[in-house]
Amino acid sequence: MKTLTTLATLVALSNPVMAEHHEHSMDLFMSLDTNGDQHISPLEAKGHEELLEQFETLDLDTDGQLSKAELDLFKMQ
Ligand SMILES: [Ca+2]
C-alpha cells in the first residue's frame, strides 16, 4: 500500500495536470473522511453513490476501507 501511495505521489508531482488532479482528489478524500482516520469506510462513502457502487472494486487490499491511493484510482477512471 505504501508503494501505491508513493507511486501516486510521484506521478502527481511529475505532471502538472496530475498535480491538479491530486489536489482535487485530496479535497474529495478529506471531505469523505469525516472521522479523519485517513481511510474511507463504507459509511463515509455513503453520501457518494458512484463511489459506493465501486467500493469493493476499489478496495484493492480488501480491508473494507479505501485509502487515499485507492480513492485516487476512482478519480482517475
Ligand atoms: Ca475515515
From TrEMBL:
Q: Which InterPro entries match?
A: EF-hand-dom_pair (IPR011992), EF_Hand_1_Ca_BS (IPR018247), EF_hand_dom (IPR002048)
GO: which molecular function terms? calcium ion binding
**According to the lineage, what is the superkingdom?**
Bacteria
PROSITE patterns listed in its UniProt record = EF_HAND_1 (PS00018)
Q: Where are the transmembrane segments?
A: none
Q: Where is the EF-hand domain?
A: 53-72
Q: What is this protein called?
A: EF-hand domain-containing protein
